[in-house]
Amino acid sequence: MSDDVWRREEIESPCVKLCSIHPVAQICVGCLRTLDEIGGWGMMAPEARRAIMEELPARRAQVSQRRGGRAAKVRRAS
After folding, report:
1. pLDDT digits (tens, 9 = 90+) for 28-49
2. CA pair distance 78, 76, nearest whole angstrom
3. How many C-beta neighbours within 10 Å does residue 75 have?
4. Cβ(20)–Cβ(28) under 8 Å?
5. 77 vs 20, which has greater pLDDT?
6. Using H for helix, E for strand and C for coil, what is the string for the chain?
7. I need a surface site. Which of 32, 34, 48, 69 has the fewest CB within 10 A?
8. pTM
9. Are the C-beta atoms of 9 and 23 separated by less than 8 Å?
């Protein structure tokens, strides 16, 4: 299936189709936007979208720490 139908001449959405809201940071772990930003994206002016896109790299640190899995078990055991 192609996404060509959804392409428009505007600032692309940062969505990477990995939608899950981080329980603490309250941002999507895929695109790093808040629920309000995701919901309002289609109605935002290009300037507002650009401002959000510029903030996204700085948000990565809020969701990059993993607490579960093997790494957490190794840290607790030591």
Report:
1. 999 999 999 999 999 999 999 9
2. 6
3. 9
4. yes
5. 20
6. CCCHHHCCCCCCCCCCCCCCECCCCCEECCCCCEHHHHHHHHHCCHHHHHHHHHHHHHHHHHHCCCCCHHHHHHHHHC
7. 69
8. 0.70
9. no
Our measurement of the distance from residue 40's CA atom to the centroid of its chain's CA atoms, rounded to an integer in Å, reads 14
Alpha carbons within 13 A on the beta-carbon side of 30:
11
Which two three-digit tokens encode residue 58? 């700085």
Token pair listed for 6: 């959804």
In the block, which residue shows the tokens 């190794």? Answer: 74
Q: Quick count: other Cβ atoms within 10 Å of Cβ 27? A: 20
The rounded distance, in Å, linking the Cα atoms of 50 and 11 is 7
